[in-house]
From TrEMBL:
This is Acetylglutamate kinase. InterPro entries: AceGlu_kinase-like_sf, AcgluKinase_fam, ArgB, Asp/Glu/Uridylate_kinase, Glu/AcGlu_kinase, NAGK-C. Catalyzes the ATP-dependent phosphorylation of N-acetyl-L-glutamate. PANTHER family: N-ACETYLGLUTAMATE SYNTHASE, N-ACETYLGLUTAMATE SYNTHASE, MITOCHONDRIAL. GO terms for molecular function: acetylglutamate kinase activity; ATP binding. It is an enzyme of class 2 (transferase). It catalyses: N-acetyl-L-glutamate + ATP = N-acetyl-L-glutamyl 5-phosphate + ADP. One of its GO terms (biological process) is L-arginine biosynthetic process via ornithine. Belongs to the acetylglutamate kinase family. ArgB subfamily. Its main location: cytoplasm. GO terms for cellular component: cytoplasm. Residues 28-273 form the Aspartate/glutamate/uridylate kinase domain. It is found in: Cytoplasm.
Amino acid sequence: MSLNLAQAKTTAQVLTTALPYIQRFEDKIIVVKYGGNAMTDPELESSFARDIVLLKTVGLHPVVVHGGGPQVDNLLKELGRESDRIDGMRVTTKSTMDVVEMVLGGSVNKSIVSLINKHGGRAIGLTGKDANLIRAKKLLMTKTDEQGNSSDIDLGFVGEVVSVNKDVIMMLIGSNFIPVIAPIGVDNEGNSYNINADLVAGKVAEFLHAEKLMLLTNIKGVMNKEGQVVTGLTPKKVDEMIKDGTISGGMIPKIQCALDAVLGGVKSAVIVDGRVPNATLLEIFTNEGVGTLISRDLDAALS
């Protein structure tokens, strides 16, 4: 058998294997949070853009919400400024917020849009300020010390999502566009807020009643105490793993975001290793996936 024929047969087998998944997810909304290594490695950037275009081409409706923390850090450094963090949250002054808007709503957003369009998609970039897409309010953070004393922490212009104008996104989806959303929100007074991209993606998925929320990360997924990736988690199991310390540190807010989404009506959420080429396709079009699946009803999510 010639090499070309063997490759062609392999391609045909892959497409045949993917067919049931394409049929299952046809016309469904998939919200993808894009960040981490996948945003800084050129090969992974191209792989991600092609994946998103392919999803749209075969009848799914991808909605991208992106981060960009490292890019913000780089510009702040170039400007000779520092940005403190508290429990992973950036303290955002008014001048820092200007930089956040410039980077996330400008260079990063337009770069992602351009890359998707380069690969044949029809992406359009938005921030939460466009058409009041993401209504926000100031995030109130409370810390408790070892003695049990609580104190309020002012993070500046850091916000949380109050509501998402789903009509704007649905209009774009209906016009065959791929929305690419920067995680910036606005309050009733017109103040801009820097919002964690995971939280924005979760709320967008919730308001859209998305079929699936995908959080691309720099890790393989939720790990058990033996260092193995665990999947097929229910809210009850997640609570147990947090209580016994299996899930801890920076993974807690990420998995809480996924948990809130599925409790809010999203059929399933998955924490995906974004360092794997074609991670998005592997997660949707194969039974194995490349991350940790979380759902209220695992049988329904896997059917």
